[in-house]
Write the structure tokens for this entry.
Amino acid sequence: MKVSVKKIDDINFIMSGTVENRTIETKVAEFKEKLSKDTNADAQKSENIEQEAAGEVFKEFINAGIKEANIDIETILGQPLLKKYEQQGENVYFEVALSVSPVVDVDALDYSEIVPDFTKPKADPEAVEAKLTEFVQQQAPFIPIEKPRPLQEGDVAVIDFKGFIEGKPFEGGSAEKFNLKIGSNSFIPGFEEQLIGMEYGEERSITVTFPEDYQAADLAGKETKFDVKLHEIQEQKAQTPDDAFAQKILSDPLATLETLKEKFADQIISEELSRLYMEELKPKIVNALLEKFDFTLPANIVEQEIDAKVREKTKNYTEEEHKQFLEDKEKFLQLRESVRKEAQDVVKTALIVEALAKKEGIEVHLQEVHAALGYQAMMTGQDAQELVKYYEENNLMTSAKMGLTEDKLFGKLLGFHKQ
């Protein structure tokens, strides 16, 4: 094994060299011998022997380069980046990029130079009353209407329905005494609208078409007839909010209506402060930090961030679009270069935030990241476990953790904990 290390700048290195093919072959033989003695070994392990052996040799190559350059392992950032792998006669040629942590001196930073001034939002009394009214309406129970009238939007219709495709009933297309809120858009587009105006006991046939992207492939895009009978119309009757209502909602026997209004006021302030932070304060702090500091960026981390941004931009590509994209080298390189500056700023910000968070004693734990992703999934209608899996498989957990660290740090600098 021959390894040479070239220092590109103060934190970036290129390791290059060769490993004899017989070294890898010897390692494969060692793995096979070890596997033959393992009575619990399965076929999958046997298939991966050559890959594992090559991986082990690659680690030894990296370790040799680290030793050659006298690099402190504790300072290494991220994973070494394999830039070139070539078969050269009796040898395999490796070229690897490796970076160490830059020095980010935050001790002398004057926070007043990077933290913008702002005025804490206030809750408009009219906005509080509007939020209270909306909440009371949402909490109101549905009860049968006192005087018969036609069905209208916002009502709950108690209906029987039976669906037919080409004259034949289909599975899951019928129900009895089903409660459907008109305007909820919980049924096929056009279904709820065609019920408006129905009277008690009325029967009506309506025709709708399942969306082309409907989850049940056998129904997608098909025209369907529904026979519907209306049994009952229910409406929400909101009560007048008082102290008793507040005590019930807050589960507090000492609560008053004013207490509940204060909760809504706090919610309005929190929402407005969050908007102000995301749209104005955070970008200003980030831009100020980027201008304030100047240091060499770890090339391998920048490339990994570019990879992540490319994956994000292409994740919704079809299989054919992915194939065309990867085959068009110029287009692929253009996309990578188009996100390079953004990736560099992300990495630079992360390193500054990491140094500042350490100085301020701010930490973010894994369960906090999972909780944040769970909330994100809930707000966007995604599956929480699938979202966490996506982040893990695409090496985005570190980025998510850094995002939370950033918000904790900036929140402290802005004095949100004192608000």
Observations:
- The longest helix spans residues 257-292.
- The beta strands are 2-7, 12-20, 76-88, 91-100, 142-144, 156-165, 168-181, 203-209, 223-236.
